[in-house]
Design brief:
218 residues; alpha+beta; seven-stranded antiparallel β-sheet; six-stranded antiparallel β-sheet; 27% helix
């Protein structure tokens, strides 16, 4: 098969103009108005010195506000860098969260909390399409558990993404809705964005840093 490359027509880059912040625009307008006022005032009836003093005070206040805003922007940038420096130390560790599990054949450490009055706990496994692929009785306790990744027949599930939840029972009666199950996964990258820091886990799953409940050294 012959692939034909399509060349886009050459276009002249558009000139972009960076808009000034509102307070900068107000500052420029104020300065122009004050200059015009000084040039065009009546020599026989000049502006009262008290009015000039008030205008100069306003001018100084606007100038200080601009400097303050610039300083705050610089501090925000420094805080972002500091936050990323702290998160960099997380890379390589294992994070616990309720994000989907990227299963690749190896056992996965999960963590859950069974209901205090439950006498049976069932781990429910759903595939990436939301279909239930396994239901597994697990110890009625709270803490870590090794999920081996088996299907309903006990065979290993194919590699992929799976969501886990826990159903609690007392006798034959289910107690409330299924509760989330957390799992551990290695952190491979830390990113900073408009909505805060995001951690990328092994398998490509992205989790907000605020949703990490525990860290451990693998």
């Amino acid at each position: 098969m012959v692939t034909t490359a399509v060349t886009s027509p050459t276009t002249t880059p558009a000139t972009t103009t960076t808009a000034k912040p509102a307070i900068d625009s107000d500052f420029d307008t104020f300065l122009k108005m004050m200059t015009v006022q000084m040039k065009n005032q009546d020599p026989l009836n000049p502006v009262d010195s008290a009015d000039y003093a008030m205008q100069l005070a306003t001018f100084s206040g606007v100038e200080q506000q601009i400097k303050t805003n610039t300083l705050l922007e610089g501090l925000n940038s420094q805080f972002s860098v500091l936050g990323m420096a702290q998160l960099a130390a997380w890379v390589g560790q294992e994070a616990r969260s309720s994000a989907p599990v990227a299963y690749s054949g190896a056992p996965v450490t999960i963590s859950y909390s069974a209901a205090a009055t439950a006498d049976r706990a069932v781990l429910v496994v759903k595939d990436n399409e939301g279909a239930v692929v396994a239901r597994e009785d697990v110890p009625v306790a709270s803490g870590a558990y090794q999920w081996l990744g088996g299907d309903a027949a006990g065979n290993a599930l194919p590699s992929g993404f799976y969501s886990l939840s826990l159903e609690n029972y007392k006798g034959d009666q289910q107690l409330g809705n299924a509760s989330p199950v957390e799992s551990y996964a290695r952190i491979v990258e830390a990113r900073s964005g408009a909505n805060g820091a995001t951690l990328v886990l092994a398998g490509g799953i992205e989790v907000p840093a605020t949703e990490i409940t525990a860290l451990r050294v693998p």
